[in-house]
Design brief:
CATH architecture of the largest domain: 3-Layer(aba) Sandwich
Radius of gyration: 21 Å
Order of helices and strands: HHEHEHEHEHEEEEEHHHEEHEEHEH
Distance between the termini: 21 Å
Number of helices: 12
Largest sheet: 8 strands, mixed
Helix content: 25-40%
CATH topology of the largest domain: Aspartate Aminotransferase, domain 2
Shape: globular
Number of domains: 2
Number of strands: 14
CATH superfamily of the largest domain: Type I PLP-dependent aspartate aminotransferase-like (Major domain)
Structural class: alpha/beta
CATH class of the largest domain: Alpha Beta
């Protein structure tokens, strides 16, 4: 069946294509002034002191974790435990494991798809846990009021993978800004698109300087003269190839920065459009008590529309997936499902807290369909017919 209702569509218009052409005409394609402008705009939009743009949301997670390993104080060390939700994307986990940290998988809440707060509170009691990784799933922010209380009680820090939830907020504070650092993605299928791209925001100046160096080979060239991690020589030749950290090349292209500048201008309307579609989605499914949508925490930016089959249906998920697909809907699992079932787990140092019953349920009973920035009149009008067919 041809896809009629895709997961992702472009939000570009002439402004993005003109921005790309401007970079092409300049002849400067590597990271430069457009990236710097985009970073300033991004930090300002989210109310953060600093933003670092990178080449993907996955790289943003890597950069964020790497920075925490090289701080002068309270740095993470291999063997430290980090709490992670059992349902997320692969690169929420990989950077932590790649730096020798031990993953502690904790169950999610079946309704919100974010942390089960009781399970999190129990897991956080371990003296070996140094960090809580919060993943805001499918546009929905975590209950950070509760999570901050848990972290403060146990002397732990919080970081956020906010790649799916750009523009979400809780009590007026943007998701991605509740912890010491937060990551974002601007991949094609996400709220804004620079094709490939990502960001990390933080209010911690030392961490910001560490990430500037780690993003580009671990050298000093991109650091301000007055920085918190090294003394810079006034000899620019000497500083041009001076390496102080075991870094990467995670730099974005100048075109990505130019695209980000234009996309950020549209972000308020993009989020508004997605939220208006969510109202229509919730209204369309209201008569069907055998499915449950994601329960909104705070103000979701509605990355997509999740559907969980509840105990009031005896039909399996395969029946629903086939029916939705036959009507032209592109469907996906809720991220990677219960990640502890993935083959790659044998390579990750980890332990599992509890039985992950909710993650297991979502793994077999949930899926999601796409949301967009424009009115989804046809898709939402077709939804009741599809669900009636699924009975």
């Amino acid at each position: 069946m041809k896809v009629k209702f895709p997961l992702a569509t472009s939000s570009w218009d002439a402004s993005e294509y003109n921005a790309i052409q401007e970079v092409i005409d300049s002849g400067h394609f590597s990271m430069g002034s457009k990236v710097a402008e985009c970073e300033r705009n991004f930090a300002r939009f989210f109310g953060s002191s600093f933003a670092v743009m990178v080449n993907s949301g996955s790289s943003a997670n890597l950069l964020m974790v790497a920075g925490l390993m090289f701080r002068k104080s309270n740095k993470l060390v291999p063997g430290d435990e980090v709490i992670v939700p059992a349902v997320s994307w692969s690169t929420s986990y990989y950077p932590l494991a790649q730096y020798g940290l031990k993953l502690v998988f904790v169950d999610i809440d079946r309704a919100t798809l974010n942390y089960d707060l009781n399970a999190l509170e129990e897991a956080a009691k371990s003296k070996d846990v140094k960090l809580i990784m919060c993943v805001n799933l499918l546009g929905n922010p975590n209950d950070f009021i509760s999570i901050q209380a848990i972290a403060e009680k146990n002397g732990q820090e919080i970081i956020e993978d906010n790649c799916e939830s750009l523009g979400a907020s809780l009590n007026g504070k943007m998701a991605g800004t509740w912890g010491i650092a937060g990551s974002f993605s601007s991949f094609f299928s996400h709220h804004i698109s620079t094709m490939e791209g990502g960001f990390v925001v933080t209010d911690d100046e030392e961490l910001f300087h560490l990430m500037l160096s780690l993003r580009a080979h671990g050298w000093t060239r991109n650091l301000p003269d007055d920085n918190l991690i090294c003394m810079k020589s006034q000899d620019h030749f000497e500083e041009s190839f001076r390496f102080i950290l075991p870094g990467y090349n995670l730099r974005p292209l100048e075109m990505s920065g130019a695209l980000g500048i234009e996309q950020l201008k549209k972000l308020p309307s993009i989020i508004q459009g997605r939220r208006e579609n969510a109202i229509g989605f919730l209204e369309a499914i209201k008569p069907f008590n055998f499915i449950s949508p994601q329960k909104e925490t705070g103000t979701s930016s509605w990355f997509g529309f999740s559907i969980t089959l509840n105990e009031k249906t005896d039909k399996d998920r395969a029946h629903f997936l086939k029916t939705f697909s036959n009507h032209g809907y592109e469907v996906r699992p809720v991220v990677a499902g219960n990640f502890t079932k993935q083959d790659v787990m044998k390579y990750l140092n980890h332990r599992i807290h509890g039985d992950l019953k909710n993650a297991n349920y979502v793994d077999s009973k949930s899926f999601f369909i796409g949301n967009h920035h424009y009115p989804m009149i046809d898709a939402l009008n077709t939804l009741p017919t599809v669900l009636e067919t699924c009975r």
